[in-house]
Specification:
The chain is α+β, with helices and mostly antiparallel strands. The chain has 9 helices and 12 strands. The protein has 2 domains: 198 residues, 2-Layer Sandwich (Beta-Lactamase), CATH 3.30.450.20; 153 residues, 2-Layer Sandwich (Heat Shock Protein 90).
Length: 481
């Protein structure tokens, strides 16, 4: 049986450009990653800055508290009677040591370096103080291996304390560091929240901005492989206008190449048909003129010309059935039963010459399509059936409408048929299952080409009682206008 088929449609899943394939990447992910790095850097810098600022604010606040402690100590020393016991002064100032987080130390030293009250271990801190610094003076130092903040207050007249008296208050830095850490973590949390919201807004915004690209992609994906119309640039974002223009130029070049190919095939077929017909006529006359024995070479020449003529006709039909050749042809309502009736005489004459019983079982079967293409499809189906069934065979042509409103056309024969494993193979162009003379391998190719251009489906089944072949073409439902 003659085969044929259009090549498989391109653009299958797993192609190099498909989503998720190796080497592909997401612009959205790249932009979010690009934004994430500087945002995290800003969070880190902000955390350091906020910690330092929090520490400065805490130092100012707690330095004022230490200053107040030093002033309170100066008042206690100032009110203490001359020659009083330093221990009493220490007991009076004990209340100033109360602190739930930090350890507080103090010392009162006269101008001669004598400890008047407080902790003797503080004397080295007093000696480290610079008398030319501010009064009070604040600095960080270390005491007992712990970092401390030191406040030095030098008393001046009219204080009753001995001349040159210095009061030093020191406390550990836990409160200060805790306050600075709270400020840093608060800023860090707010920064992280702000950045998360920023990234979320960017993500949602990109999804919204990405919708036109998705819509254009779906429109292109929904197209048939032969749909090379330009993409509408006006509905696309300006950022991809250059890409769309490049794609339109590519499709225009492909369209032009396809049209040029179709024109070449059509012209070649037309140019070949006339001289072949004339040559065949001359050979027929020569054969008829041989009253006695026809030379074998002349018979072979006649068979070759007939086959070449048929092949040329089928190439012309295949070229005309291609989608590019019928892009401007408007489909019309066609009655399949009428199409078969009009061509019946040609098929019946061929069947009689072949010794084949050709019958028709017709019912109303309306379709939307191109009449000459449907006639060409029908001619190839019947020609194949009659040719391969041979003398004594039966070929039946049927048409009708299914319950759902889909029209169908069938051609059934009781010939050799096609093995089930080879039924898809026979739709390839120039594919043949045997070496029987007369076939060109284009008949079923034309059938499928026409069927696909009409959005129809072609199925191959075994004939009655498992013999022969039944080809069924099912068309879409005709929508009433």
């Amino acid at each position: 049986m003659e085969p044929a088929a259009r090549p498989p449609r391109s653009g299958s899943s797993g192609s190099p450009g498909s989503p998720g394939s190796p080497g592909s990447y997401s612009l959205r992910a790249r932009l979010l990653a690009f934004l994430l790095a500087p945002l995290l850097a800003l969070i880190g810098a902000s955390a350091i800055t906020d910690y330092q600022e929090g520490l400065r604010v805490a130092n100012d606040a707690y330095d004022q508290a230490m200053h107040s402690t030093a002033l309170a100590l100066s008042a206690i020393v100032d009110r203490a009677p001359a020659g009083s016991d330093p221990a009493e002064t220490t007991r009076a100032a004990a209340v100033l040591r109360v602190d739930t987080l930090d350890q507080v130390y103090y010392a009162v030293v006269d101008g001669n370096g004598r400890l008047l009250a407080g902790d003797a271990q503080m004397i080295p801190l007093i000696l480290d103080a610079d008398p030319d610094d501010d009064n009070p003076e604040y600095r960080f130092d270390a005491l007992n291996g712990q970092p401390v903040r030191v406040a030095t207050l030098r008393l001046s007249p009219p204080a009753r304390a001995p001349a040159g008296t210095v009061i030093v208050v020191a406390e550990t830095t836990r409160k200060r560091e805790a306050a600075a850490s709270r400020a840093m973590f608060a800023a860090l949390a707010s920064g992280l929240l702000f950045n998360a919201i920023t990234l979320l807004v960017v993500f949602v915004g990109m999804r919204y901005a990405h919708r036109p690209l998705v819509r254009i992609g779906r429109q292109i994906e929904a197209r048939e492989a032969d749909d090379l119309r330009p993409i509408d640039e006006s509905a696309a974002p300006r950022e991809i206008h250059a890409l769309i223009r490049a794609m339109n130029r590519l499709m225009s070049n492909l369209r032009g190449a396809g049209i040029a190919q179709q024109n070449f095939i059509s012209s070649a077929a037309h140019q070949l048909r006339s001289p072949l017909a004339a040559l065949q006529a001359q050979i027929d006359v020569a054969v008829e003129g041989q009253r006695d024995e026809i030379p074998q070479r002349l018979r072979a020449m006649q068979a070759s010309v007939i086959r070449l003529s048929r092949l040329t006709k089928q190439m012309l039909a295949l070229a005309r059935a291609a989608p590019d050749a019928n892009r401007n042809v408007e489909p019309a309502r066609v009655a399949l039963e009428g199409l078969v009736e009009n061509a019946a005489s040609e098929f019946i004459d061929q069947a009689v010459l072949a010794g084949t019983d050709l019958g028709f079982d017709l019912a109303p079967a309306p379709v939307m399509g191109v009449a000459w293409a449907l006639r060409e499809m029908l001619a190839n189906l019947i020609d194949n059936a009659v040719r391969y069934t041979g003398a004594g065979g039966v070929v039946t042509v049927r048409c009708g409408t299914e319950e759902g409103g889909r029209a169908w056309l069938e051609v059934e024969d009781d010939g050799p048929g096609i093995p089930e494993a080879s039924r898809e193979k026979v739709f390839a162009r120039f594919a043949r299952l045997d070496d029987r003379p007369g076939g060109s391998g284009l008949g079923l190719a034309i059938v499928r080409e026409v069927a696909q251009s009409h959005r129809a489906r072609v199925d191959l089944h075994s004939g009655a009682q498992g013999r022969g072949l039944r080809v069924r073409v099912t068309f879409p439902v005709v929508m009433e206008r």
